[in-house]
Amino acid sequence: MLQANREFKLRAKKQLHGKWLEAAILSLIAWLLTTAGGGVVETAQYVWQNGVLTSVPASQPSFTGTSNLLSLILGGPIALGVAGYFIKLIRSEGPIIEDLFGGFKFFFKAFVLNIMITIFTILWTLLLIIPGIIASLRYSMAYFIMTDNPQLSAFEALNQSKQMMTGFKGKLFRLWLSFLGWFLLGIITLGIGFLWVLPYYNTAKANFYQDLKDNLNIVN
């Protein structure tokens, strides 16, 4: 049985002790590389997808502007690096800021994964907002899965995430909602608040993944 979401958050605070500044710097670098100058919509999406922008603006399904171009090219590898850092953090494996760039070792796979998540999320969002949110939740574990299984293709990582999240999308959504006030504060403070909340959220989400993986008895 999965832990309560509050346990993921409590665990995250303990795991971030002594690492919060480093995790904040990593989150800032990830943001600068993928979303700087992108505006409020991109910032909102930034906090939704593993601390980096991995989808185009919700208002229009087109790649426009420097922010979207950076997201398209760098979003996947950076998201994979972010996932790798926080997985190491919760497993006490000595994460370092340089782990952010670990995703570039698998650039093509991460790039394709980013494109696939973007396309699928956009297609579902074209129907209604709610299906788009469900799609985002469905694929939310893909970068963690690829971190643990770099031999997988982008399609295999997506498929495993889809299977893994069956019956658990609502729980992850409630975890995200529990951070909503902090996300809004981050936007109001022009991003400053994100330096505190993004490490917290990403660590809690990594704990969610680890607990789900353990409960489903998934072996790397």
TrEMBL record:
Pfam families for this protein: DUF975 (PF06161)
PANTHER family documented for this protein: MEMBRANE PROTEIN (PTHR40076:SF1), MEMBRANE PROTEIN-RELATED (PTHR40076)
Keyword field contains rRNA-binding: no
Protein's recorded name: DUF975 family protein
Keywords linked to the UniProt accession: Membrane, Transmembrane, Transmembrane helix
Transmembrane domains' residue ranges: 20-41, 69-90, 111-134, 175-198
Organism (species): Desulfosporosinus fructosivorans
